[in-house]
């Protein structure tokens, strides 16, 4: 199982957000490096995103909202930075999405 997973829910439509491209990135000198990428499935989930272990540190998920909501999306991207303290523990980072807002939390 992947160390990092996500779930995107379209709260305005009341359904999972299918087909959202998501990148997992780690910091490098003056920028970010791609660790993994995937798209949400029919249930809005990505169950396999990157390796089963990661070094402790700060990572980020970049959600391509424009691909899902279209070219007039108010937020073309949602970027969620989070810290991995235990590089072997599962980290579930969901995104709740609507046309003019998004939120996230540490899931289980």
Automatic annotation (TrEMBL):
Catalyzes the hydrolysis of 5-hydroxyisourate (HIU) to 2-oxo-4-hydroxy-4-carboxy-5-ureidoimidazoline (OHCU). This is 5-hydroxyisourate hydrolase. It comes from the Bacteria. Belongs to the transthyretin family. 5-hydroxyisourate hydrolase subfamily. Residues 4-107 form the Transthyretin/hydroxyisourate hydrolase domain. The lineage of its organism: Bacteria, Bacillati, Actinomycetota, Actinomycetes, Pseudonocardiales. It holds the Pfam family Transthyretin. It catalyses: 5-hydroxyisourate + H2O = 5-hydroxy-2-oxo-4-ureido-2,5-dihydro-1H-imidazole-5-carboxylate + H(+). The keyword DNA damage does not apply. Homotetramer. Substrate binds at residues 7, 45, 105. Its EC number is 3.5.2.17. It is an enzyme of class 3 (hydrolase). One of its GO terms (molecular function) is hydroxyisourate hydrolase activity. It comes from Amycolatopsis arida. PROSITE patterns: TRANSTHYRETIN_1.
